[in-house]
Amino acid sequence: MKATSRFASDYSIQSEVPAEYQPGAPLDVLERSVNRVQSTLYSAAIRFAHQVHFDDELCKAQGWNGVILPGFLLGNWCLEAVTRTLGPRSVVRSVSFRLTSVAYPDTLHRISGEVVKVEDEGEWTVVTCTVTVKDLSDNVVTKATVAAAVPNTA
């Protein structure tokens, strides 16, 4: 299933994991960018107001270009890549992610991945994927493993 809209109501309902999403199958690629204000609002919304997300001087003293994106935002992008690929009935079972570099606001990031395991659990099929977030210089800024389940019945 190809997702072309950001609204769940725009997805077609699917009842099973499509046959094309088997081990080795790529996830639909997402491209995401947020500006500094959006990043700050995200940090406030999740109540994680660390200085590295709003204090340029502190960040430059660390050797960075300026404020950095919240890691949880990058992790959420990984979840989004999996659930958009699997459809609106998918349910995240587990996620682990690791930040490998800093990511900056106003930079386009590409989120991609692939299916690594598919398990039938009776009423559910669990699809495990590896996901990476890269900036346009091809620097990996986040690596994740996401397991999501899709119901086997309509």
Description of the molecule:
With about 150 residues, the protein is an alpha+beta fold. It has a single domain, classed as Thiol Ester Dehydrase, Chain A (Roll), CATH 3.10.129.10. Helices cover about 20% and strands about 30% of the residues. It has 3 helices and 5 strands; from the N terminus they run βαααββββ. The protein has a 5-stranded antiparallel sheet, covered by helices on one side. The chain starts with about 30 loop residues before the first strand and ends with a strand.
The value of Rg in angstroms is 17 Å
| Main sheet properties | 5 strands, antiparallel
Please tell me the total number of domains: 1
What helical percentage do the residues reach?
10-25%
CATH 4th-level superfamily: Hotdog Thioesterase
* C-alpha end-to-end distance: 16 Å
Unreliable stretches (pLDDT < 50, length at least 5) are 1-15
What's the helix-strand series? EHHHEEEE
Q: How confident overall, as mean pLDDT?
A: 85
What does the overall shape look like?
Answer: elongated
The CATH topology annotation reads as: Thiol Ester Dehydrase, Chain A
Given helix and strand content, the structural type is alpha+beta
Strand order of the largest sheet: 1-3-4-5-2
**What is the count of β-strands?**
5
Q: Helix tally? A: 3
In CATH terms, what is the architecture?
A: Roll
Beta-strand level of the residues, as a percent range? Answer: 25-35%
